Amino acid sequence: MPVAADRLEFAPPAPPGLLRAMVLAIIAHLLLMLALTWGVAWKREAENVTAEAELWSSVPQQAAPKLVEAPPPKPEPEPPKPVVKVTPPKPEPAPLPRQADIALEQEKKKQAELKAKQLALEKHKLEEQKKLELAKKKAAEDKQKQELAARSKQQDDAKRLDAQRQENLKRMQGLAGASGAPTSTGAAQRSSGPSESYAGRIRARVKPNIVFTEDIAGNPMADIEVRTSPDGTIVGQRVLKSSGVRAWDDAVLKAIIKTEVLPRDVDGRVHSPLIISFRPKDL
User: Fold this and answer.
1) Which of 108, 134, 241, 247 could form a disulfide with 223 if both were Cys (CB 3.0 to 4.6 A apart)?
2) Is 18 among the domain residues?
3) For the chain, which ranges sit under pLDDT 50?
């Protein structure tokens, strides 16, 4: 055994592709055998062999006539087939409605009529409700218009009564010796404030006494408060709102002191205190 193993170990390796070569060789031999078998079978096909022979006799004999076949008998005509009349089947009568179907149809009709009546009733109710709402709305609008008209009439009556009352008051005040102008709208017997022209009269009295020679920018205004006695004598003066130029404020105060007495108003009174405005460029 060791000797055999050594020999196999040192034997040359088997050539590659041995198995594939053997398979190809077997296939080639099989194909060759099939080709040879087919060729032999093709050459051994059966051939049609024809032969002729002549017969002689020593005594002449006449041939028998050729056999003539009798014609086939004519077929007898077939008897006519009886005509069969085909009558169409009578239509089956419609099945009579059953009592249950009749009752069901009647019930359906009743339900349909009841439903139609209910719809008509609901429609009538809706129309009546709409008419009622429209009537209520119209009544409310009419009432609102009447209230507005009555309120407007009351306001007009109140205005007319107020105007009449004011007219009566003016007439009564005129009879009582009121000192106001015809266009006055007050209710007092005499005005408590100065007239419209009184401030101008006071300025006209004070301006000649103002001594001011400085050149200033703009035309500032100084508001002076003047206090007087009942006869118009000036008892006090002060700057209520400065013009921003001290020299102009002092000149106005000195002019008021120099004036000493203020003129009386149209009603003969001297109002105190008075606030008088002065501008340097209005001189």
Assistant:
1) 241
2) no
3) 1, 175-179, 181-182, 187-191
Whole-number Å distance between alpha carbons of 100 and 107: 10
Q: Which helix (H) or strand (E) holds 240?
A: strand 234-241
Sign of CA dihedral 269, 274, 280, 281: negative
Asked if residues 209 and 259 have their Cβ atoms less than 8 Å apart, the reply is: yes
Q: What is the 3-state secondary structure (H, E, C) of 241-281?
A: ECCCCHHHHHHHHHHHHHHCECCCCCCCCCCCCEEEEECHH
93-127 burial code (b ≥16 CB/10 A, e <16): eeeeeeeeeeeeeeeeeeeeeeeeeeeeeeeeeee
> Does 90 fall in a domain?
no
- When the pLDDT of each residue in the chain is averaged and rounded to a whole number, the result is 76
- Domain closes at, from 146, 176, 206: 176
Q: How many residues does the chain have?
A: 283
Domain count, the chain: 2
Rounded CA gap, 24 and 178, in Å?
157
Contacts of 51 (CB under 8 A, 6+ apart): none
- With 0-12 / 13-18 / 19 or more C-beta atoms within 10 angstroms meaning exposed / middle / buried, residue 152 is exposed
Domain with 240 in it: 198-282
Residue 199 is encoded by which pair of tokens?
A: 């401030």
